[in-house]
Each structure stands twice: as C-alpha cells, then as structure tokens.
Amino acid sequence: QVQLVESGGGLVQSGGSLRLSCAPSGFPVHHYTFVWVRQRPGKEREGVSCFGHSDDSTAYSNAVKGRFTISRDDAENMVHLQMNDLTPEDTGVYYCATSRARCWYSYLINPPDKYFETWGQGTLVNVSS
Q1: Least CB-packed of 31, 61, 108, 123 within 10 Å?
Q2: DSSP output for 58-122
Q3: Cα–Cα distance between 23 and 80 in angstroms, integer?
Q4: Which residues does 118 contact at the CB level (< 8 Å), separation at least 6?
Q5: 3-state DSSP call for residue 54?
C-alpha cells in the first residue's frame, strides 16, 4: 500500500546542514508532486518546498529559499531536501507529502482543499544555538 517514510532528521548546531529523505512505496515518485511541510513548535504546519511531477518545477517558502534544495531521484525512487545554514527557527517536525496537483508557490503557501493525498509520519529536526 502507499506509504511515505521520512529520514535524515536529527540534532545539528546552528549553521549546520542536514539532508532529509522521503522513501515512498507503492508508486513511482514521478507520478506525484512531492511537498515538504514542517510544523514548528507552537505554530501551524507550513509548506517549505515542493517538486512538481508534471513539469519538474520547484518552489520554496521565503523562509528557506536559498538555503534548502529539493530534489528527486527517480533511480532510487526517493525525494530529498538538502537543508543548509540551519538556524534554531528551522526546528520542527518535517513531513513528506504527495499531491496530484502542481507545484506552485501559491499552493505551497496556501494549499487548496484536497491538495495533499498522502503523508509521512515526520522526522524531527532540532537546531541548537
């Protein structure tokens, strides 16, 4: 059955880097748009990056643009999020999710109804000062 498993989270000092990975099962990664969504303590979930399935487009939230890079590896059937120059403000649980819709900046920031189809269980990123 369809499943998403995130990995790569952990504890890192401010200024450090982490690479998150999303390993889907049950479908090829190129069939869906992939979205990285995070939930910081005391805040609502927010989209940080997406990779479109139809045109390979990418989008980033203003908070992570220039520091995070999303990529898709069709051979390994994985999606990654390279996170550089991390700060304590990046601390939170990061989720991998799929969508049948496009990867548009507006969708990333304000997802429409029924945008997300499948969610992973999340991986914790903790950035210390």
Answers
A1: 31
A2: EEE-TTTTTTEEEEEETTTTEEEEEE-S--GGG-EEEEEEEESS---HHHHHSPPTT-EEEE---
A3: 9
A4: 2, 3, 4, 24, 32, 97, 98
A5: coil
Q: Which residues pair with 111 in a beta bridge?
A: none
Inform me whether the pLDDT recorded for 2 exceeds 80. Answer: no
Q: Residue 91's closest CA among 129, 57, 55, 49? A: 129
Residue 26's pLDDT is 83
Place of tokens 């200024």: 15
Positive or negative: CA dihedral 39, 40, 43, 48: negative
